[in-house]
Automatic annotation (TrEMBL):
Signal peptide start and end residues: none
GO biological process, one term: molting cycle, collagen and cuticulin-based cuticle
Membrane-protein topology: Multi-pass membrane protein
Compartment(s) where it occurs, according to its Swiss-Prot or TrEMBL record: Cell membrane
Biased composition (Low complexity): 918-932
Top-level taxon in the UniProt lineage: Eukaryota
Region (Disordered): 896-947
Similarity section: Belongs to the patched family.
Pfam family name, one: Patched
Name used for this protein in its record: SSD domain-containing protein
SUPFAM superfamilies assigned to the protein according to its UniProt record, in alphabetical order: Multidrug efflux transporter AcrB transmembrane domain (SSF82866)
Keywords: Cell membrane, Glycoprotein, Membrane, Transmembrane, Transmembrane helix
Amino acid sequence: MGLDLTTRLEKATHDGFRHLGLFIADHPWSCLISTLLLTVFLSIGVVNFREANNVRDHFSAVNSPSRYEFAVAREFFRELGSPFHVVVAMEAADGGNILRPKYIDKALEIEEFLQYKLIVEHEGRKYSYSDFCGAQCETSDAVHIFLTMFRDVKHRGKTNVKLTYPTMDVFGHRVYLANNIYQVTLNNRSKIVEECRLIAINFHAIYSNSTMEMVMKKWEHAALDYAQSTSADPLIKLFTTSEGLVSEEVRRTGIEAMPLISVSFVVIIIFAVGTSARRDLVKSKPWEAFFGVLTPIMSLCASFGTLFWLKFEFLPIVTVVPFLILAVGVDDVFIFLHCWRLGNPNLPLKERIADMVAEGGASITITSLTNFLSFFIGIFTSTPAIRTFCTFITVAVFYCYTFHLTFFTVVMYFGAKREEQHLNAYIPCIKVRENEKVFCTFITLAVLFCYTYQIFFFTVVMYIGGLREEKRLNAYVPCIKVKEKMPIEDQKPEEIQPSANPLKFLVPLVENFVDYYVDFCMSMSSRVLLGAVLLIYWAFSTYGILQIKVGLTSEKLFLDDSPLLELVRLQTNVIFKEGGQFAVFINNPGNLSEPDVIPEIMHILERFERAPGSVGSSSTQMWLNPYLSYVGIQNHGSIDFQYKYLPEFFNIQEYHRWSHFVSLANPQYCVDENPACVNKFFFTTGFRNASTWTERLNLLQIWRMITRDYAKFNMTVYEDFSMYSDQLLVIPSSTQQTVICALICMAVVLVLFTPNVYTVVPGVAAVCSINLGVFGLLYYWNIDLDPISMSSTLMAIGFSVDYIAHISFHYYKGEISDQKERLRHALLSIAWPMFQAGMTTILAVLVLVVIHAYMIHVFIKVVALVVTLGLFHGLIVLPIVYVALPFDKTMAKDNKKDKIRPTTIAIQSPDTPPRSPSPTHSSRSSDSGVDASDSDNKVQENEREIA
């Protein structure tokens, strides 16, 4: 009978990787040089390096309404220039009322300095804010007018000055204050302002060329420096922020993390080389491990260069990609090293390389494929930052996988050539003589120094140890008695360990523990205990998911020492809670001179003023109100709309501030009463009682609904922070869809490599359980659902499958009919390597803990959760579940002719000795053309190697 589809796929995969190994062994120099040249060529793409850093553009979903609304607002002002906005907030140093005489004087001094005396120089010319604010200057005048009137008691007593809130009336002019003063206390009777604890000055401007853009950037930095220089002022504390400063702080977070890549690299080098070192100076693999760690670095150079060739931009969130690639890439190094040690040392070098690639190729394919798919799916998300992050790491995973199969195989080939020539593993130019003891001098010195202690202290220790040994107490836990072992002649062949193993004293401890653990897994008590633990775990995780908050704020992108952080917190805790203003753009006003158009527009305005949460008409800024009054004056009482007065109206100093509310076409159109005179315009009105993002989103939805009722005007609502509110609309659904797609892909991978319903169903359930925990437990770690955590959870899905696939693959591949022995075999094969893989992953990102930023800590916490939950499910949950379920698989003896060597998914400790030939190994040897004597020679050779 022919092979089933799964076995055919398995055999084809094995043969394909074997042919690749043979090809590389035949052409090592060609493969090495071509790989290095390709890496260098792709790396040259760095000449196209472009950095982009715009929080609004990159963390706002492309399909969110706020993105379109911002584009409309930006397009409106682009006709006049690009908008510039800096906020400077003032708070009393003692946290009290800022409307006390000394504090008012200081606040006015600060306002005047920022307005006129804060000078920046550009191209030999000096600029102050008053030099470039233009029609926007009056936006900062409200604070000056209010403080001046409040300080002058005689003005406060006049009937034509009413310092009410949210709008004050000064000599007949209404000034909206809700955008400038906060935490206000009013007189119960007169509703006059008596106290306020926070004042914010809004500095607006519009720049129309690159020169003014540079001037304004310099000015916002000067304002920040001034605010920081007054930190010790006894009266007033200053805080500053702007969109440009926010973007620069986000960039600083990435810059702080970049130097730690070298630290992570060194840590991984030490770990890899240390765990690859052996007592045998020939068969140790320190340089192979070193170049193995270089493989992820090469993949980073190639992937980043490729994307820079393709004009991709570098974002701060991409900073964590090198750490993640180091974490996942080094695992593959251990897989190949392990497969090499398990290979038959009597085979020719070319055959050993082919066997190594055939054994390890499928293993690293599983881990690379799961990581690749989980991040590849993220490329199709709607948030540009996540899309860019996933693109960079997906391409890096692909190159890392490719270079491990090519470059690192060549490294292993040259290492094997060195080994054949008996050259020193550490200093390859030195030939090692048989039984040479390189460290004999050091050992002799150590013996001399320790001689006295050995005579006295250690003799007593050995005496106590002898007493323990007589009583057959455990050497590591002396309170536990070790059970009697059966005579060696009665043991099964696979239970006999190589006698020359220097770590053989660990074998009884490990195997006793595994035996006890397998017995525990088989017991009913383990199932009851596991069920209880999982119910509690799922309950906590589910509650966390239900309680997790959705949304990204700019403070999550800052370092903890950011000078902008305090004002951002004030915005979140004070300013946002007290309300704000939103703009309504009328992009197709039509013919305003028609009798029914102006009344309809005013009716629309009234609907917004009466909408839930709106402040009302006192907060509205509508250019039509003063213009119609002006038209009435010009027409001696008639207020019918006319275009011809618009140019002169906006040129009058008193009305000049309204000019930026209207986009005018050719002034001649206005003179000719052509409706094309007015392209578009906007008005603003205030809102309040929206302290949470959910409440702000509800208001946004009401405003958007109003605009849809008047489609002919093509109206658009814009609110400065709507991008944060809209995340409540986009992120939950986007995350749900992405996670479901990723889990389906992971399930397909498990089906391909462990095609048995009793391994696939528990495996997929375990992956779901791990990710349930990752999402749910993040809530208890004060992490919200936002684009940063969303990209991290994509990583979690890929990483979590690794742990499940390892134990599932070994349990499935074991050629043992008894479930107890099958589980024992799987645990002895993979338990320690899984732990080693987890440690490697954590070490790669652990250095980032010194960066105190939410964006960085999210990745660290997700990695910690994935590793912990992955090991819990892989080593505790699945073993108990697997032995509780029936399992049936056709043994190798039923298909001996077609048997292929099972792939080993193992990241083995370098000093872990190979197991003696089991039935699996025997059939493997016979099928590959190696007779029993070769297998015995292999065991003997491995024994000599370890010795």
